[in-house]
Amino acid sequence: MSTAVPDRAESPATVVDALIIGAGFSGMYQLHCLRDRLGMSARVLEQGDGVGGTWYWNRYPGARCDSESHSYCLTFDKDLYESWEWSERYPEQPEILRYMNHIADRFDLRREIRFGTRVTAARWDARADRWTVETADAEGGAGERFAATWLITAVGCLSSANVPKLPGLESFAGDWYHTGQWPHDGVDFSGKRVGQIGTGSTGIQAVPVIAETAGHLTVFQRTANYSIPARNAPLTPEFKRYIRENRPAIRELMQSTPNGHAFAIADRSAHDMTPDEREAVYAAAWEKGGLQFRATFRDLLVDKAANDTAADFLKRKIRETVKDPETARLLSDIDHPFATKRPPIDSHYFEAFNRPNVSLVDVRSDPIERITPTGLTLRSGAEHALDVIVFATGFDAMTGPLLNIGITGRDGLTLKEAWREGPKTYLGLGVAGFPNLFTVTGPGSPSVLCNMPVAIEQHVEWITDCIAAMREKGVSRIEPAAEAAEGWVAHVNAAADATLLPMAGHSWYLGANIPGKPRVFMPYAGGMAHYRRICDDVAAKGYEGFVRSA
Ligand code: N01
Q1: Please, what sign has the CA dihedral across residues 435, 439, 440, 442?
Q2: Ligand 1: does its nearest atom lie under 6 Å from the Cβ of 387?
Q3: Which of 38, 182, 275, 363 is 20 to 30 A from 11, comparing alpha carbons?
Q4: How far is CA 152 from the centre of its chain?
Q5: 547 has which bridge partners?
Q6: CA angle 513, 397, 73 (to 5 degrees)
Q7: Looking at residue 4, what is its pLDDT?
Q8: What is the pLDDT of residue 7?
Q9: Ligand 1 contact via 223 beta carbon (within 6 Å)
Q10: pTM value?
Q11: What is the pLDDT, as a whole number, of residue 39?
């Protein structure tokens, strides 16, 4: 006789109006908007045991912001905007994390945040017009269950760490770390043989700091990268006064530029100048430092010949800085146009290769074959003995954090299936087949091509207004129409193709850093200010492109 074993009774769910996943800038601001502006019940589910998102996890040596501090903040609240004073041009991770905690304190957000709570599944329940969400606790056991009308992902674009599947890693007798999952009590490199894999924005920040204490640091470079000096320094009293006296104008500037930074892109072509004049412009931007270098001419990202002028200048600077000719050659042998991968900014990165305890290994021509108990070996058989391996190998960007949640929409459609050929969203904000789901800075929105807090504020405010409008009209379900999403995906592709960005074939913007991931240009390259106008227009037309039902 067969006995059907009944399912374990499900624990009753905690029912709220809205669930928000993630407690970084996005999740905290979204909670404030829904709870304090709209009076809704809401919870934030956060895997970490503190707020901060990116700045909670990325505690690697040298971690600091690449946006200038006076533009790297939330500006929606006058008192918040005016109450925080940054100490440096580019704040370090601990200072930014203090700022995030300040936001949580100021708006009393923690009481609605469930820390140590990882979302393991989210399913649309069509009978009840709501999402049911399963969680795991810090030990991985089944956690609290939730149900909510609205589900908002605030998971960040760069939160799913990519540790390359190198054979033998489990056999390594030393310690290894990914920069995006850095131990909270730090790592002692004193006297150790350290190997760092990866020379993106993260790796370039980490090298000079690790080199200060490591016995020897070997940097394994697959793709050479441009970098511009950050010229970081404490903010002067004069600059602090300038910020205090000009906040509204700074905010307006940030909201009017394509990339959300507090500087305008010069309205001139690189071809408008003689080589000497152009050289002077680049030299001044190099001395000033930071991402503003990209804003010296309006055509650097759309005209290859214009871009070449900047690329040549930057490669020459590398060769002038690095003393060993072979190391200088490898570091300046860059195969993509300037800024087609996210341009790093650094504090003495290239100078670090002049130290006797730092060496560079080219793993483009001789790839890493396997990790061994004592280090790693290259395809040629060359062995590198290591005590510590640092993976500065980036993230399964933009789609990774969303696909990891395990989201199932209408009619059993999983997000994985819906995005089999690459992410398909409408405005980067919603997905056809997934009612009442909003994705803050999702694929198809400017997000990573923009100063993130500017992109986040716009998304959170748009989502809040949309939810308020739906509640007012008694709409219980809203989702993008499939045709609207198809149209947006085509527009996102066209916007990327109008630039040089797709020319960096190995960029994470294209998903090319993750084996097997569809090659689709994920962020919206049409510019933040333009994008904001599109979103406003969609709202003004009664949420055009969305399907609603009572
Ligand atoms: O990651 P990346 P990241 N063998 O993907 C290499 C933001 N950010 O963490 O280029 C050997 O850019 C890989 O090589 P390749 C910012 O938006 C912001 O540095 O793929 N090498 C590359 O060199 C940034 O763009 C701040 O050939 C391997 C590196 O690892 C984004 O985060 C600070 C490899 C990964 O570079 C990601 O930056 C830092 C392998 N198997 C970062 N796999 C701010 O300040 C990968 N690599 C705000």
Answers
A1: negative
A2: no
A3: 38
A4: 17
A5: 479
A6: 135
A7: 44
A8: 46
A9: yes
A10: 0.96
A11: 98
